[in-house]
Amino acid sequence: MTALLEIADYRLAFDTFDGTAQVLDGIDLTLEAGGTLGIVGETGCGKSVLARSLMALNPMPPARVVSGQIRFQGSDILAMSEREMRRLRGRAISMVFQDPASYLNPLLAIGTQMEDAIRGQDAAVGERQRPRAAARARAAELLAAVGLPEPARLLDSHPHQLSGGMRQRVLIAMALAGDPVLLVADEPTTALDVTVQAQVLALIARLVAERGLALMLITHDLGVVAAACARVAVMYAGTVVEEAPTADLLSRPLHPYARGLIAAVPDLDHPEHRPQGIAGSIPSLITPPQGCRFHPRCPIATERCRSEKPLRREILPGRSIACHHATP
Amino acid sequence: MTQPLLRAEGLSKTYEAKRGLFRAARAVQAVAELDLALDRGAALGIVGESGCGKSTLARLLLRLIPLSAGRITFDGQDITGLDEAAMRPLRRRMQLIHQNPSAALDPRLTAEDAVAEPLRIQGLATGRALRDRVAALLSEVGLPPAFLHRFPHELSGGQKQRVCIARALALEPDLLVLDEPTSALDVSVQAQILDVLDGLRARRGLAYLFISHNLAVVRQVCERVAVMYLGRIVEEGTAAEVLGTPRHPYTRALLGSVPRLAAHGIAPAAPGEPPNPASPPPGCAFHPRCPIAIPACRDAMPPLATLSDGHRLRCPRAMEVSP
């Protein structure tokens, strides 16, 4: 079986005035159809840049592909023309973002924006645009599918009349317009209150199950991954350091950075476990550390870690670690 | 009994929301009839979702915005009616830490200058003594001398927040009001800042009013917690009780909504979203989302009852329906 999405040795650099930042340094990831993969990491680890790569949304320049392939349903996204990409975007792959307010036009009614998106999809795949009335009916159907009450009334509303949770549901509905097979969600609940976050995560989980969607969920919050993803990849400074089934990684992280990250999360139910910070700070990607990029902050680093970049290897079935010293 | 460092009684803040040129203004009650007390050296957490009034509360208590009703006492002194000049000597003793340290620092001041500024303005130190004091303050928050001459853009988010904390400490306050102090930081940095805050409180006997939406962080920092919903406290007590064995249905919904690392999947703990403060529901503001609401909950705002152990709870139903 070929995977839905296969990222192989993907390297992306950003050319800046201060030098070239090696933002993604050899990413290898696979996502099966219907699979759910969380990408976690802290600010600047490259997780959003990776997500945007799937939709070819990183501006080039300054971004520049150094090497690698991103094969989606067998074809390499990195080799596609803008025209080919437009057929894919929002259709086979669609995306939701962190801040729903900034992805809706404040001047237009929700219905108008959804109709435009649906008709735009028609045009992108070279079909005749359906009439507005048909697009509107489809929009109402999508709003109902994401659990929004009174779709007809909602279509006449403007974004400011909606709460944050409702706006994010509208954007999820729009993301479903092209019947995608892969949904890329970049911090979809970060701007939401916790009670609403729980609702939106439950919605995403339901859509994934009902529609057989594959999900790539980018987040800084390990709890969100636990709630929505079967597998998780932990990123640090442009590399994937550990990839594993979510429950395994959260209960027994093996990479020193993954261990540090989990130990830093305060535990609401066990306040006696003091969260531990990770000493030091994230490295510059213009002059990244030689060898393992985590070695300057790693409690178990040795001479080898300073000189030789560890390759990610499978040390348990379905579980791989990029660390010279990792043991199962 | 010793008097608390900070006390608010019947504190209210009403904003006039303009509704266009020719329509009457409508009152939005951001904080309503709120009572709280913070002891010297204690840490009180204020939790709640956006729009619950927690940041307005911080600004009211610091007298940064005018209050609509109520009384604020700081160290035994009624500060409700004090004008700016009378407040000035007290401002040294109460400091605010913001969520976003990048916005709180002047981009043209080095870490040293930023921390020296309040000391210089208050005329507390000059020359060599000033420089020594600034270096000591920065070292206390974990920034070695190498950082003295760095500008904000040369500092990470966590380092900037450390500078903000050192600057707030410069005038030796009794009270720090911390408004989401770690929300903009990565989790590994957050843990470091929480350590800094714990150490400072232990050494200096500071009192913290700690505002956050992150319940786990509040559980780490605070002994007491007040939960706010639409401008009112709905539950208040020790952190162990409120966050360990919550009684108010809203507190339960909040805790139930936090995704746990140990659990796969998530079930929404409350339907709907916090209501718009401009058109609050009648009666108990939480009743439209409440799993144990009865018709009476729609009729009148339940009082904030004080239970025998000092726990405060605004829900007669929760007391009937034992957990």
TrEMBL record, chain A:
GO terms for cellular component: plasma membrane. It is a peripheral membrane protein. Its main location: membrane. Belongs to the ABC transporter superfamily. NCBIfam families: oligo_HPY. This is ABC transporter ATP-binding protein. GO terms for molecular function: ATP binding; ATP hydrolysis activity. It is found in: Cell inner membrane. One of its GO terms (biological process) is transmembrane transport. Residues 5-262 form the ABC transporter domain. Keywords: ATP-binding, Cell membrane, Membrane, Nucleotide-binding, Transport. PANTHER family: DIPEPTIDE TRANSPORT ATP-BINDING PROTEIN DPPD, OLIGOPEPTIDE TRANSPORT ATP-BINDING PROTEIN APPD. It comes from the Bacteria. Coiled coil: none annotated. It comes from Neoroseomonas marina. Transmembrane segments: none annotated.
Automatic annotation (TrEMBL), chain B:
GO terms for biological process: peptide transport; transmembrane transport. It is a peripheral membrane protein. Keywords: ATP-binding, Nucleotide-binding, Transport. GO terms for cellular component: plasma membrane. Residues 6-255 form the ABC transporter domain. Gene3D superfamilies: P-loop containing nucleotide triphosphate hydrolases (3.40.50.300). InterPro entries: AAA+_ATPase (IPR003593), ABC_transp_ATP-bind (IPR050319), ABC_transporter-like_ATP-bd (IPR003439), ABC_transporter-like_CS (IPR017871), Oligopep_ABC_C (IPR013563), P-loop_NTPase (IPR027417). The keyword Chloroplast does not apply. It is found in: Cell inner membrane. One of its GO terms (molecular function) is ATP binding. Belongs to the ABC transporter superfamily. This is ABC transporter ATP-binding protein. It comes from Neoroseomonas marina. The lineage of its organism: Bacteria, Pseudomonadati, Pseudomonadota, Alphaproteobacteria, Acetobacterales.
